[in-house]
Amino acid sequence: MTTLRTRQISSGTASTATSTNLPEVSGPVGISGKMPTGNANILYSTPARPERFLFDWKAFPETPIPPRDRREIFREAGGPVLNLPRQLVQSPEAIFLSIWDSAIMGHIVTETNRYAEEEISKRQDTLGTQSRLHRWTPTNVDELYLYFGILLAMGLCLKSNIKEYWHCDGFICDTPNFAKHISYNRFILLNKFIHFEKRKMVIIS
């Protein structure tokens, strides 16, 4: 025999109802005992816990290492070593241009344009009419400086995918300055063809 206790909220009086052989159904995990709902003919019971939740907990064999102490300590000088005048070291732009000077940027321009021409000529017969590769034009040093600047800005402003940097729909998280400096299609083309060295033929004997 199962006894259910219900409370009459409106009158403030309590009454007791007795029922036998009431049907049982499985209720949410974590509810202990039997629990009445609006239907007095249904009782909830807690189902048995699945075996995948029966863990065999064991203590650590030794004291865990704090996350901060897990890092490898870097003791060497990092980055390029340049003998720059003191006034230039205080300018991030000057340091960047000392590493990525016009000579190396000119080399990247040459290899990028070469690679783009090779790839487009190989695919000329299979390119769709709407392919953005038809819009490729040779790049130059100034544009590649802009391209690298965009990459640095992306590292400071993280988004879930590249296209979101060019959203200008009045969203609170929009970044309209990317589109002011370079179009999305042009950035994708540069990103596709950027090249630093001429590909060499490797002969396997």
TrEMBL record:
Alphabetical list of InterPro entries matching this protein: PGBD
Region described as Disordered: 1-33
Domain PiggyBac transposable element-derived protein: 91-198
Transmembrane segments: none
Superkingdom of source: Eukaryota
Ranges annotated as biased composition (Low complexity): 10-20
Name this protein carries in UniProt: (apollo) hypothetical protein
Organism: Parnassius apollo (Apollo butterfly)
